[in-house]
């Protein structure tokens, strides 16, 4: 490891970003919560939390939690308050930061950190752990023969593509159960940043380019996780839309774009699910670190939205790069506390020293410190650890494997299906399985969004288990090649250090004659194209967003050989984010977007391609013809190009389909798109009123007119008047998924519009305004496939919500307008 440290330091200084969560590899024996003695007063028994044989005020459960916490704060010293406001460190992080002080192994090896314990109050240390695709803890521990595997669930893009809130809640429940049964209190998830640009290295963790689907997806998952009695930390608040120089990048964003896109998703999640915690992001917005921003953390989050939980920093949030920590740099701890950032993570002694001096000298007021301490104690009082929950270390992994398999299946998007190439259910005819990723399947991305699961089901295993007859010669060629490539890539990453990002595996070189031979003997070709990315760096256009030359050659040869024999070619996309499809999609018969579907991925793909399950996923982002078709492309990742310090969100609210549809830019596959093995007819749209009065209901009938059962996602887009400010052509304002409709079966779907759904943020008026005039409702199967329309009017302008101005601009620029 020592050999690597100097390389790592250089790399950190050069890139100014780091996939730091990956450092959690240290393990130690698990300390289980011990049973507390009791104390009896007046015939009633109470837990003697501090074991002193007396009933302290904070131990008296007859009193309100507020009174009990108040009693603790009154007795706390300044040093104790500071200990609570700053996390307990994180083992392994010294590789990136240098020796930053004592970072004790927490109670659960591999967890990301926690809060301090205080024996004299009987306050235990609580545990927080990653992440968005499931619990990330160390699977093995020193002097312990047991293993502690967790379930790798589908990545965020796959989960969001289900458009199914009930299913997402089930996924959340399964995640929450593992969190609780492994002794963790808070899962650092979900991640719901807007997919502003397709190259963001962490888009796989995020849900959509649209705030409604991002917010509703996150809320469903939070509700599921928190139903298990553990907490969540929704992240990264806010405008954290790239990984390049993520600790220092300054995002210049207009107040309108912030409120309508980059805050709206968090607002929906906060109001619909009350997450226990919110994680402030690394970046600056208009010159101010988000963890220093009172506008964001107090004015918006608490005063406007009514958030009651704690705010924690991202790990080393507010530090100007990792190298600054090595040279004694520090976040502005007083500013962070005053902003309403209660907990500084992972916490280092230097922060404690400065914060204690500030509290002792009055530079930080007792009032602010006490409010922040109170919120952290309120959180601790809710935790399973405080309740002395006896966790088992044995969550039901078999049951959760079934949950992840079903969720992955429902999130798959059928992009193309010419002449019913799929489903392919013939188990007697031979299948050719091409592409290195078919054999070295990608479960999920790297960094804090990864999971230490026991085993990943590859496409090879999934098709074999489903009874398909695979060409043995191909399997015998590909399997060792894939294993060798995957092992070399892993080793290469290890050599490059913990900041290293995953790289594409090389394809096998096969000649035209070989493909022709396979086309003779096989009935169909399945070809997997794989992509991976991770925390700490963004993707690139060549050989990542665009296909590599060797992939294009492979597709050309396979298509030519199989089509010459009248055989079909199906591409499976095992990817976490958007790639280019327009240049090659005409060469193949079907394309199934499988995403990075978690540990049961091979089974999930087999369920769809066999027709056991009818695909019902829809895109939550636009697939462009070219990367440069995105409005954000000319402002990503920022300037100067070789080492960006600033990025300007000049596209304003015209992100994703809001740009493509308003400016008439043709996509390869539009937002909301996804095919099925059956067909659906929409009819009889009705609005509950012709004029809007506080709310409006839209009903539409959806009928399965095809031959197989299936589910349909029903999407409602609203077009608003644009007299006072410019507006996107239409915006997603409501959606629902039908039940599994049998052939000929219908369902009436009801979608509700509320005042804020009609409103845009008008900066000049500092308010959300719904203009007077006519509004058009478009209901359909995608943002471009509209099946039914209706209209209603707003007789006079509605001031839906008046707010204070936030995040004053630090740079003059004009938002893009049509």
How would you characterize this protein structure?
The chain is α/β, with parallel strands linked by helices and 818 residues long. α3 (78-85) crosses α13, α7 (211-226) packs parallel to α9 (264-273) and α17 crosses α22 (601-609). The N and C termini lie far apart (54 Å).
Q: Layout of SSEs?
A:
Elements: H1 2-15, E1 38-41, E2 44-47, H2 65-75, H3 78-85, H4 94-97, E3 113-114, E4 127-130, H5 156-160, H6 165-181, E5 186-188, H7 211-226, E6 231-237, E7 250-252, H8 255-262, H9 264-273, E8 277-280, E9 284-285, E10 288-289, H10 294-304, E11 310-313, H11 322-326, H12 333-339, H13 349-361, H14 366-382, H15 397-411, E12 413-417, E13 430-434, H16 436-439, H17 459-465, E14 469-470, H18 472-496, H19 512-521, E15 524-530, H20 541-545, H21 549-564, E16 568-574, E17 590-593, H22 601-609, E18 623-624, E19 646-648, H23 657-662, E20 667-669, E21 680-687, E22 696-704, E23 713-719, E24 731-737, E25 746-753, H24 755-758, E26 760-762, E27 767-770, E28 773-780, E29 786-794, E30 798-802
Parallel strand pairs: 4-5, 5-6, 6-8, 7-9, 7-19, 8-11, 13-14, 13-15, 15-16, 16-17
Antiparallel strand pairs: 1-2, 3-4, 9-10, 12-17, 18-20, 21-22, 22-25, 23-24, 23-28, 26-27, 27-30, 28-29
Helix pairs in contact: 2-14, 3-13, 3-14, 6-7, 6-15, 7-9, 15-22, 17-22, 19-21
Descriptors for this entry?
six-stranded mixed β-sheet, 18% strand, alpha/beta, 818 residues, disordered N terminus
The best one-word shape is globular
Beta-strand content: 15-25%
Mean pLDDT: 93
- The assigned structural class equals alpha/beta
Percent helix, as a range, is 25-40%
Radius of gyration: 27 Å
Q: What is the number of helices?
A: 24
Measured between the Cα atoms of the first and last residue, the distance is 54 Å
């Amino acid at each position: 490891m020592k050999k690597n440290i100097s390389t790592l330091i250089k790399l950190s200084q050069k890139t100014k970003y780091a996939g730091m969560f990956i450092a959690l590899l240290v393990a130690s024996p698990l300390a289980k919560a011990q049973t507390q003695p009791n104390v009896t007063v007046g015939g009633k028994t109470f837990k003697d939390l501090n074991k002193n044989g007396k009933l302290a005020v904070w131990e008296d459960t007859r009193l309100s939690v507020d009174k009990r916490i108040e009693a603790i704060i009154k007795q706390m010293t300044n040093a104790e308050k500071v200990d609570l406001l700053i996390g307990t460190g994180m083992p392994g992080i010294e590789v990136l930061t240098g020796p930053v002080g004592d970072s004790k192994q927490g109670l659960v090896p591999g967890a990301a950190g926690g809060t301090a314990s205080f024996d004299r109050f009987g306050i235990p240390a609580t545990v927080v752990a990653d992440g968005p695709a499931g619990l990330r803890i160390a699977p093995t521990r020193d002097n312990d023969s047991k293993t502690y595997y967790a379930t790798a669930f589908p990545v965020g893009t796959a989960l969001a593509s289900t458009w199914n809130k009930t299913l997402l809640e089930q996924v959340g429940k399964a995640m929450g159960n593992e969190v609780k049964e492994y002794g963790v209190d808070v899962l650092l998830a979900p991640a719901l940043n807007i997919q502003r640009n397709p190259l963001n290295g962490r888009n796989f963790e995020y849900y959509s380019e649209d705030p409604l689907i991002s917010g509703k997806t996150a809320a469903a998952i939070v509700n599921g996780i928190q139903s298990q009695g553990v907490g969540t930390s929704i992240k990264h608040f806010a405008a954290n839309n790239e990984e390049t120089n993520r600790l220092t990048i300054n995002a210049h964003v207009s107040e309108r774009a912030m409120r309508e896109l980059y805050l709206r998703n968090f607002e929906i999640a906060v109001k619909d699910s009350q997450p226990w915690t919110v994680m402030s992001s690394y970046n600056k917005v208009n010159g101010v670190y988000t963890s220093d921003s009172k506008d964001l953390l107090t004015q918006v989050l608490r005063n406007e939205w009514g958030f009651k939980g704690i705010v924690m920093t991202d790990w080393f949030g507010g530090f100007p790069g990792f190298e600054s920590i090595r040279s004694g740099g520090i976040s502005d701890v007083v500013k962070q506390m005053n902003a309403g950032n209660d907990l500084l993570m992972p916490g280092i002694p230097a922060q404690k020293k400065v914060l204690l001096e500030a509290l002792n000298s009055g530079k930080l007021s007792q009032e602010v410190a006490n409010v922040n301490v109170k919120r952290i104690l309120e959180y601790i009082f809710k935790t399973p650890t405080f309740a002395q929950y006896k966790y088992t270390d044995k969550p039901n992994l078999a049951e959760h494997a079934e949950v992840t398999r079903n969720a992955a299946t429902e999130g798959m998007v059928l992009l193309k299906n010419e002449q019913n190439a799929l489903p392919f259910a013939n188990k007697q005819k031979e299948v050719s399985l091409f592409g290195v990723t078919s054999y070295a399947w990608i479960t999920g991305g790297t960094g804090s969004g990864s999971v230490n699961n026991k085993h990943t089901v590859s496409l090879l295993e999934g098709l074999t288990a489903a009874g398909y007859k695979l060409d043995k010669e191909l399997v015998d060629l590909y399997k060792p090649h894939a294993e060798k490539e995957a092992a070399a890539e892993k080793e290469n990453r290890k050599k490059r250090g913990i900041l290293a990002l995953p790289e594409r595996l090389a394809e096998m070189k096969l000649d035209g004659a070989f493909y022709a031979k396979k086309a003779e003997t096989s009935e169909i070709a399945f070809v997997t194209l794989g992509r991976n990315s991770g925390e700490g760096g963004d993707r690139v256009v060549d050989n990542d967003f665009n296909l590599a030359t060797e992939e294009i050659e492979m597709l050309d040869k396979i298509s030519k050989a199989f089509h010459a024999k009248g055989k079909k070619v199906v591409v499976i996309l095992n990817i976490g984010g958007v790639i280019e499809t327009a240049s090659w999609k005409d060469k193949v018969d079907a394309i199934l977007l499988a995403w990075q579907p978690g540990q049961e991925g091979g089974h999930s793909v087999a369920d769809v391609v066999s027709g056991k399950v009818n695909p019902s996923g829809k895109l939550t982002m636009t697939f462009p013809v070219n990367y440069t078709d995105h409005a954000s492309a000319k402002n990503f990742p920022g300037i100067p190009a070789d080492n960006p310090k600033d990025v300007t969100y000049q596209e304003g609210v015209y992100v994703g389909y809001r740009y493509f549809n308003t400016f008439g830019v043709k996509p390869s596959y539009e937002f909301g798109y996804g095919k099925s093995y059956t067909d659906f007819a929409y009819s009889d749209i009705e609005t509950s009123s012709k004029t809007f009065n506080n709310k409006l209901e839209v009903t539409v009938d959806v009928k399965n007119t095809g031959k197989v059962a299936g589910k349909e996602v029903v999407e409602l887009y609203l077009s608003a008047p644009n007299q006072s400010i410019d507006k996107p052509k239409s915006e997603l304002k409501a959606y629902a998924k039908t039940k599994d409709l049998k052939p000929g079966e219908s369902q009436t779907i009801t979608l509700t519009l509320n005042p804020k759904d009609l409103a845009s943020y008008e900066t000049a008026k500092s308010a959300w305004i719904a203009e007077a005039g006519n509004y058009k409702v478009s209901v359909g199967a995608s943002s471009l496939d509209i099946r039914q329309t209706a209209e209603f009017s707003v007789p006079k302008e509605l001031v839906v919500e008046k707010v204070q101005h936030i995040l004053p601009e630090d740079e003059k620029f004009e938002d893009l307008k049509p």
